[in-house]
Amino acid sequence: MGSIEGWSLALSPIQEDARSEIDLAALVQTYSTLLFRVAHSILRNPAEAEDVVQDVFVRVLQHCRSLPAVRDLRVWLVRIAWNLALDRTRRVRPEQWDELFIESLAGSNLPADQAMQETQRMQAVLRELERLPKAERHALLLSAIDELGTAEIAEVMGRSESAVRALLFRARTRLKDRLEKGERK
């Protein structure tokens, strides 16, 4: 019987009889990195993102009886992390993009002048990303940073797949146009 600190998640009464269960440690190992990326894409703060991941698994423990009804566990967990991170941004205004985050995106194996140019480019992209309408920004973050597919994004955002495709198209087009306009200046 797998467990972590005495906690295990039974799938259903029928499966419980068969001694089949979901191990919380396995869930943490499987999904914690993805959930961290989701939370970090919104919060831009590693400590806050880690707190969100912990809160997700607390919610899992609180709702373990309803776990059998979950069709797609990955999307369900991402949606919880997404909503918890958004709740945190509503309570406390997140700081601007952290320099360490930008540097990690730029790459560390570049010569200093190229790394500086790449960092400036990433800052421009992130500034323009922040200026996108909220729905477009959220769809783009879920797609690009969290690597979710259209169906998964639709479920997380509570929209249709065609609406998500339209949001992604508009976000990418708007971001591209703004970045090209900024480079011409």
CATH topology of the domain at 1-95: the name is: Rna Polymerase Sigma Factor, Chain: A
Q: CATH-wise, what's the superfamily of the domain at 1-95?
A: RNA polymerase sigma factor, region 2, helix turn helix motif
Shape annotation: globular
Number of strand segments: 2
Relative strand content: under 5%
- Mean pLDDT rating: 77
Given helix and strand content, the structural type is: mainly alpha
State the order of secondary-structure elements, H for helix, E for strand: EHEHHHHHHHH
Q: How does the major sheet shape up?
A: 2 strands, antiparallel
Helical segment tally? 9
Distance between the termini: 63 Å
Pfam families: Sigma70_r2 (PF04542), Sigma70_r4_2 (PF08281)
InterPro entries: RNA_pol_sigma-70-like, RNA_pol_sigma-70_dom, RNA_pol_sigma70_r2, RNA_pol_sigma70_r4_t2, RNA_pol_sigma_r2, RNA_pol_sigma_r3/r4-like, WH-like_DNA-bd_sf
Keywords: DNA-binding, Sigma factor, Transcription, Transcription regulation
Domain RNA polymerase sigma factor 70 region 4 type: 123-175
